[in-house]
Specification:
alpha+beta; four-stranded antiparallel beta sheet; 36 strands
């Protein structure tokens, strides 16, 4: 066993049996185990290809003729001699048997007009529907499948029918036979169509006409016509006589035309039709065809033919193409002599047939069946050898009569005067693979292989044949499919011939056949192939370099001819194309088997040959992007490295290589980061720290670290304080006291919700002397006094004014800030006018009197005289406004007092019959409330209703007030003097009166039927849960 096969067996046990069981097969190799084929032949008993099987049926008479079609067998029987009218007469009848139902058969008498007449021959169509019976005296009868009696064909009278070329019935197995041709022993051909009819006064011959005469008084013994598949009108007619074969090609007419379907067809061959002649006089010549398929119950266009002649079997194949009149359809025709026999002569009927001439012949797909007077022989059509021979068991006086073939069911019948045999064909193609193999027809042989042993034998022979012919690459593809030769033997064959291309082909093909479980085999072969591919690339590369050098040298030479120069350039171009093809082939191999190659071994193997490009391609294929990036970085190919990183999704590669890339290709690196939004900016801090402003190229528009962090914060919404602090530090680093725009913009964007450390930011800005940014940070921290103070320190009054207005909710602080600004202007800048201007900007927060204390003791009033006058006028206007408001207040108070006085005298008229709107009882029976809307309620009813409609808190309050009022009333009534105190004239109200007013305010604040309370209760149901009795009262 080979080394590779040992690996295979170690990894997985074989899933097939140890020895194949070959029953029904001829001698052939047997697969024993993987990689070996037995060289011995099987000895198991084999069935014969052809077997003669007697039909267990006793016929009531002597068999004179037999035909078959579509499992219908029709036998012509002749009865025992009977003396009638001083003449010896033998009864004539036919027996129709359905092979599918052998017990159901019919016997039909032949109504001969002349008693001595006898059945000469039968003709049945392929469907078994139409039967023609021809007699010795020229009487012809027609029997349809549905008839119990046959009918005389009057227009056939006198015609000794010898051959019939059936056509396709228009109705399948219907009443119409379709157009067919009839050949006679007189050499005439008739065009006929029969129609089965139950009308006794209507002839069966739908039409009947003679269309051709063969001439020379030659009997027609074989007749067949076929339509060309590619042309609906083109037909070929085959005609055989004892020694001639005619092939007539032409166009047929419409069957309803004047001369019928074949009239014009045969008219072209009235004079000197071409034919193939084989000398010999034989009366039982036969013409047979073999079709591979069936079409609508009929045999398809025939593929092969065989013609029984005296010298032998004339056979060949048929080709239906573009033939015209006079062309042949027969191809590869040959004459096969009959096999030798001890028999010297055979007598059929009254004639003598030459030595060893069969009585009849049949054609199968691969064999000729020959019927002799005492035996049946089978000859292989390909080899010409006799593969079957069997004697026919005959009784005393019994003779062999003939043989019939059912073309539709592919059954064969041999009949004697007394017995019927079926010739069974069993697996006739089982040895065809051997014959085609001997002829080097390997593809055809493979199509006939029955098992893996035969297939392996064919492939092995084919591989060895091509190897012997020097066609090594082709042989390698077949060696790879062979299992009978060891792997090592095949490899050594190619190595001995130094055929590395063939070896590569063999390894690739063998690799394709390996299963996934054969891991070790796969790895070894793949590794070997990698080395072969690399060597091929190196060889082609050397050739390209050599050819390129020759071209360059030729360009420098002045003696070289133009034609020679073009040849060198063409050679260089061809070698470059070959190199490109070799690269593509190797890359395709790597892509296919990347998962089956050992990574480190493959790296080492490729790099040892200096094939960097292929190594990087392999690394990309297997997803080892780290190796590719590392290589490009070592080569300072920053763009290529970034391109590889961007192709993959492993974020760790970004983090690992970004520091180096950021240091050398900052713009492209940041572009790559932006294209990968899944990156964590915190993990990129080391790379950002590597970035230096000095490394920026002139093309850089801005700091790339700031650019990415801006993207992370603004686009990705990053809120990591570390990122924001670092971004702030970068802004501080690039800012100067003269230019703080970017930093201020950043601070403004985050003023509402800063994610950076404000104290850290203040410290950085203070260290860098960034006043505006520091002021803005103070303001963000709520330290407005420090912000204003710092702005004033740097004499930035505008910035101080902006920050002084920021504490909107703290007016004293704002005023304090504005005073500090005013004091700075007066004391530091000594600018009285500017201080007066600030009074306007303070939005009336500061007055002239607020800033006067800051003025020096000796200052001219002329500088702010107008402001003082304006302030005095403003005060005067304000005093007037206050007087007007006081007058209006006095008038309003007087109006209110009058309204109260009138309210005490207000009354409402109530009818004596008025009822409470809640309890519907008379209103005047107890204390009540009257509302302006004219709704009236008892006091207790109103209180109870308000309690029900109020929330629990308000209801509890009303209840408590009632209890307190009752308690206070009892105390007041018991000792009113004590309640009033020592001063009997005091105007202070009793406590129970105060509680009553509070209760009235809660209960009678609004009408319970039309006030806001009832509107807010719109979701409350009309009928409450405790009012089920009301609901029940409405039930009908």
């Amino acid at each position: 066993m080979s080394l590779f096969e040992e690996f295979e067996n170690a990894e997985s046990a074989p899933n097939y049996s140890i020895v194949s069981k070959l029953q029904n097969n001829t001698s052939q190799p047997v697969l024993l185990e993987p990689g070996y084929v037995s060289t011995s032949l099987t000895t198991s008993q084999q069935l014969n290809i052809l077997t003669l099987d007697r039909v267990q049926f006793t016929f009531p008479g002597t068999i004179t003729s037999l035909v078959s079609g579509s499992n219908i067998v029709v036998v012509a029987l002749e009865g025992a001699p009977v003396v009638q009218a001083n003449a010896v007469v033998k009864s004539q009848r036919v027996m129709r048997i359905d092979v599918g139902q052998p017990d159901a058969f019919e016997e039909i008498e032949i109504p001969y007009k002349q008693k001595k007449d006898r059945i000469r021959k039968l003709f049945i169509d392929p469907t078994g529907t139409h039967l023609i019976i021809s007699s010795d005296l020229g009487e012809n009868y027609y029997l349809h499948a549905k008839w119990k009696k046959c009918r005389l064909l009057n227009r056939f009278k006198g015609i000794l029918i010898s051959a019939v070329a059936w056509g396709k019935s228009k109705g399948g197995a219907g009443d119409l036979s379709g157009i067919f041709l009839v050949g006679s022993l007189q050499g005439h051909i008739f065009e006929v169509e029969l129609q089965a009819t139950d009308d006794l006064f209507k002839r069966e011959e739908r039409y009947f006409r003679q269309v051709y005469t063969i001439g020379d008084d030659l009997p027609i013994l074989g007749l067949r016509y076929e339509k060309f598949p590619a042309h609906s009108r083109k037909h070929v007619v085959f005609i055989t006589t004892p020694e001639r074969l005619y092939q007539l090609v032409g166009l047929c007419s419409d069957p309803n035309s004047e001369y019928g379907m074949f009239g014009d067809f045969f008219r072209m061959y009235d004079v000197h039709p071409g034919y193939q002649e084989i000398p010999g006089k034989i009366e039982n010549s036969e013409l047979h065809f073999w079709s591979q398929y069936l079409e609508g119950g009929y045999p398809s266009i025939p593929k092969d033919f065989a013609w029984l002649t005296e010298p032998g079997i004339y056979y060949g194949s048929l080709s239906f193409g573009n033939q015209n009149a006079g062309d042949n359809v027969v191809e590869n025709a040959q004459l096969l002599p009959y096999p030798p026999s001890k028999q010297q002569a055979t007598t059929v009927g009254d004639g003598i047939i030459g030595v060893n001439v069969p009585i009849s012949i049949a054609l199968t797909q691969f064999h000729f069946i020959l019927l002799f007077s005492d035996r049946v022989k089978g000859i292989n059509a390909l080899s010409g050898e006799v593969v079957y021979e069997e004697e026919i068991p005959l009784k005393l006086g019994e003779k062999v009569v003939g043989m019939s073939c059912d073309a539709v069911k592919s059954t064969y019948w041999v009949y004697t005067t007394e017995t019927l045999f079926e010739l069974l064909v069993t697996d006739e193609d089982r040895d065809m693979w051997k014959l085609y193999l001997d002829r080097k027809s390997f593809d055809i042989a493979l199509s006939f292989a029955k098992n893996e042993a035969q297939r392996d034998k064919i492939l092995t022979t084919q591989a060895e044949y091509y190897f012997s012919q020097g066609r090594y690459i082709l042989s390698a593809s077949y060696y790879a499919q062979s299992v009978s030769l060891s792997f090592e033997d095949i490899v050594l064959k190619f190595i001995s011939k130094n055929e590395r291309e063939a070896l590569k082909e063999f390894l690739v093909k063998r690799l394709e056949k390996l299963k996934k479980v054969n891991v070790i085999q796969t790895i070894l072969i793949c590794t070997w192939l990698v080395e072969i591919y690399i060597q091929k690339l190196n060889t082609v590369k050397d050739e390209v370099d050599s050819a390129s050098a020759q071209v360059e040298a030729a360009k420098l030479s002045s003696d070289i001819l133009e034609e020679e120069m073009q040849d060198k350039i063409a050679k260089l171009r061809r070698l470059k194309e070959e190199e490109g093809f070799a690269k593509d082939e190797f890359r395709g191999f790597l892509e296919t088997y990347k998962d089956r190659l050992d990574r480190e071994t493959t790296y080492l193997l490729i790099s040892s040959h200096g094939r960097t490009e292929e190594m990087l391609y392999f690394a990309e294929l297997i997803g080892d992007f780290e190796k590719v990036v590392d290589f490009y970085i070592n080569e300072h190919k920053w763009t290529e490295a970034l391109s590889i990183i961007s192709k993959q999704n492993n974020l760790e590669l970004y983090y690992k290589f970004s520091p180096t890339l950021m240091e050398n290709a900052s713009v492209d690196t940041v572009n790559a980061w932006i294209k990968q939004p899944s990156l964590n900016p915190r993990s990129l801090i080391p790379a950002l720290l590597k970035y230096k402003i000095s490394n920026q190229s002139a093309a850089d528009e801005k700091n790339q670290a700031i650019r990415y962090l801006q993207y992370a914060c603004n686009k990705l919404g990053n809120q990591d304080p570390l990122i924001h602090n670092y971004l702030l530090s970068l802004y501080v680093a690039v800012s100067t006291p003269e230019n703080e725009d970017e930093l201020l913009r950043f601070l403004s964007e985050e003023k509402d919700d800063p994610h950076f450390d404000l104290q850290y930011a203040l410290r950085l800005c203070s260290q860098r002397g960034l006043m505006q940014s520091s002021v803005q940070i103070y303001s963000a921290m709520g330290l407005y006094e420090q912000a204003v103070k710092l702005a004033l320190k740097h004499n930035d009054l505008e910035l101080a004014r902006i920050n002084a207005d920021k504490p909107d909710d703290d007016e004293p602080l704002r005023k304090k800030l504005w005073l500090s600004i005013a004091r700075h202007v007066v004391e530091e800048k000594k600018d009285i006018k500017q201080a007066m201007e600030f009074l306007k900007f303070s939005n009336d927060l500061l007055k002239i009197e607020d800033v006067l204390p800051f003025f020096p003791d000796f200052v001219l009033i002329n500088d702010f005289k107008q402001e003082i006058c304006a302030a005095l006028e403003e005060y005067n206007l304000h005093i007037e406004e206050l007087k007007t408001e006081m007058d209006e207040a006095t008038t309003s108070a007087e109006s209110i007092r009058l309204d109260i006085r009138e309210l005490r005298n207000k009354y409402a008229t109530i009818s004596v019959l008025e009822k409470c709107r809640i309890c519907a009882l008379p209103l005047l029976t107890r204390q009540f409330f009257v509302f302006p809307c004219q709704h009236v309620f008892h006091a207790d009813c109103l209180i109870n209703q308000v309690i029900r409609d109020s929330n629990p808190r308000q209801a509890r309050k009303i209840t408590e007030l009632q209890s307190q009022i009752t308690k206070e009333l009892s105390i007041w009534k018991g000792n009113p003097a004590e309640v009033k105190g020592d001063d009997p004239f005091s105007k202070e109200k009793p406590k129970h009166e105060i509680l009553k007013e509070e209760l009235d305010e809660l209960v009678a604040g609004e009408c319970v039927l039309c006030g806001d309370t009832i509107i807010k209760m719109i979701e409350k149901p009309f009928i409450m849960h405790d009012e089920t009795e009301i609901v029940q009262s409405w039930i009908i």
